[in-house]
Amino acid sequence: MPRGSGRICIAGLRQRGRDWYVDSVPSPAGHLLAGVAVAWAAEAFEPLRRRVVSAGRPSKAAPVATPLVLACVALALAPDLDILLASHRTYTHSIAAAALAALAGGSVARALRAPGLATGLACGLAVASHIALDWLGHDTSTPRGLMALWPVSSAHYYSGLDLFADISRRYWKPEEFILKNAVSIVREVAILGPVVALAWWARKRVLASREGHPGV
Ligand SMILES: [Zn+2]
Question: Helix (H, G, I), strand (E, B), or coil: what is residue 85?
Fold first, then answer.
């Protein structure tokens, strides 16, 4: 057993056949990209577009990282915090978590006089992106998949498509931790990069086309 692993396992990070050291999901980089894509796509539509170009700001000066982008990135990454609770890929990887994020995001937005419904939808989709990516990823744990439909069902769902590769946390194995993970991350970027680029292009195009007509 590697040094330090005992304490982590005692904390319950290896449960029900799940190995904390080999995760069957896109890396945080993949989830980050998905969160950015959701936010930029949402900002290509009203009423969130209006928030980006408010105060007469030219489209070229529109910020890349708006509060919505930061929120969506955080929410797209957040479900994996359940690793710390020894219940990986269960409640935080469910439609309930996505609905809760939508509700919370919408409520905060309304309190800040921002578009509540649109912001809530974007926040919910950010969490849903995490669920979708995990569902599409390779999984060798037991049980396979995630509790995507909780609380409707506690069954684990797994696509079997293996679109994304394993991410290893075996830091004592450089060939895995560095080389294998690098290949996995490059694969994620190759798949999700075009999606992010498309969202960026759509946002930029809409902001430029509506420049001078912020109320449209
Ligand atoms: Zn996950």
Answer: helix
